[in-house]
Structure formats: structure tokens, C-alpha cells
Amino acid sequence: MNGTRLLLPLLAAVLLTGAACAKADSGTPGDTGSTGSYAADAAVVQVSYVGGFVSPDMLVTRLPLISVYGDGRVVTEGPVIAIYPGPALPNVQVQQISVADVDKLVKLGVDAGVGASTDYGQPGVTDAPDTKFAVLTTSGLKTSQVYALGEANGSGLTDAQVQARAKLKAYLAQLTDLPKTLGQDAVSASKPYEAKGLAAVSRTWNADSSGVGQQPEIAWPGPALPGEPVRTGFELGCVTVTGDQLTATLDAAKKANTATPWTSGGKRWSVTFRPLLPDEASCADLKD
User: Fold this and answer.
1) CB atoms within 10 A of CB 8
2) Ranges of the chain with pLDDT below 70
3) Are strands 218-219 and 262-264 parallel, antiparallel or unpaired?
4) Has the keyword Signal been applied to this entry (predicted)?
5) What is d(CA 191, CA 69) in angstroms, rounded to the nearest whole number?
6) 68 contacts 44 by C-beta, under 8 angstroms
7) Whole-angstrom Cα distance, residue 224 to residue 246?
8) Cis peptide bond N-terminal to 90, omega within 30
9) What pLDDT shows up at residue 24?
10) Which domains does the chain show, CATH number per domain?
11) Does the reported pTM lie above 0.70?
């Protein structure tokens, strides 16, 4: 009897301990982030296109669809005027959300399956890009990369693969409509993003054959072109423009278009501009 009395408290303690452990392990506490746990310039949530049938210049300079940073900045590419040749500089915009809402977006990403060992299948579509999701959690960076996410209609996919893709599509829709996802008052008005650096990706300039006529050349005010090679197999160079040269280059680029020949070192160059994002410092960050 005394032995039974001694065992009951011990059994209760074991059960309580087991329940506590089960509660601690039931969710994903290490994956939801915590308010104030991120560096201001850390890319906490990011969605990008990878690969696809696009020009080498675009493969190198393509901006992420959305980048959410630790301090609540949300960087996206805004609309571009429908003219040809188009403006030389991309229309990069920034909005602001709260750090608490950054955590909400992390949690939504984890719930959608980012970072999970999921088979998304390989649909019968050619030349489409992969859509890469990256979410920075307190247990590390989680990523998922899905081929032809926006184009596949289920052909060649299992029901499980279609459902898994649908979760990521829904998450992307949430990220691209933050006022709906977080609340109208939770997202600031959009304004131009002011980059602290600019990657200038160049290749030898060729006369335009589309009938738009000769473009006036502009003297290149930045570091000498073409710079360091970028991406193996591409005849592209890249220079990082900062400081006073950044100001001069941005001023010149505002007067240029995508077909403008830039002169540097006695040669003409075509230049594609890529503003560096808060978590990027140089051309080397575009080589991944």
C-alpha cells in the first residue's frame, strides 16, 4: 500500500512531464520567428524566379518577386511604363510593415510547407522558371523550389503534388496582396526604394535592329566596364557602383533607356542595372 502511495506521485510527475514535452513538440516554435529576433537587413521572407527561358542579362539581374526584411521593409518591383526601349532603371518600390507582421508571414510560409520535404512533381511544361521560396526561421533558413508553379495545370502531377503546389500558390498570393493578408492599415504606401549600391551588368553593345533608330551614347560615370565576369558561360561583366559614383550613375541612367550605348574604355556597352537589396553588397551576391 505504501509502495502504491509512493508510485502515484511519481507516475503523475512522469505524465505531467510527458504532457509538457508533447506540448512543446506539438507545434513548430523554432520556425515561427520571434518579434525583434531578426537583423534589420536580413531577408526573412523572399520569393524569386530561378532559371527559365529568359536572356542571360535577366537571369543575372532579375529582382525577387518580393523580399521582406527584418525591420519590416517589403521590397518589390513596381509597374514599368509600356514603351520600347524601356527605362534603364527598374522601378523598385518599398513598403513598411510591423516586425510582428513579419513573423506572421514567416508562420504562414512554414504552414504552407516551405522547407518541408515535399515532392512537388515535374509537370509537362518547358522553359518555365522555378519559383523559389525562402523563409528565415529561428531554426534556420528554410527553402522550397518548385518548377512551373504558375503554369502547371495538373498534367503529369499526382493529387498530392497538386495540393502541395496549391498551398505555395496560396502563400504567394498572400505575399503579393499584403493589405488583404495583414489588413489595409498594416501596410504603408509604396515609395521608391533608395539603394545604397548598384550592380551594373554589361556586355558588348550591338546596334539595335528593331527599327527604333540610333540611340545617343552616354559616357559611363561608374567603375570601368565591363568589370568582373558574372555567371559561368555568359559573356557578361559586372561592376558594383557606390558612393559618389552611384549618384552620378543614377543621374545618367535616368536619362537613358535599355538600348542606350554606354562608352567606357573606348568601347560601347549595353548595361542592365540591378539595384542592390538590403542584404546584398556587391556583384558577387548576384552569382548564386
Assistant:
1) 10
2) 1-36, 152-154, 208-213, 288
3) parallel
4) yes
5) 16
6) yes
7) 13
8) no
9) 30
10) 43-186 (3.30.1560), 195-286 (no CATH)
11) yes
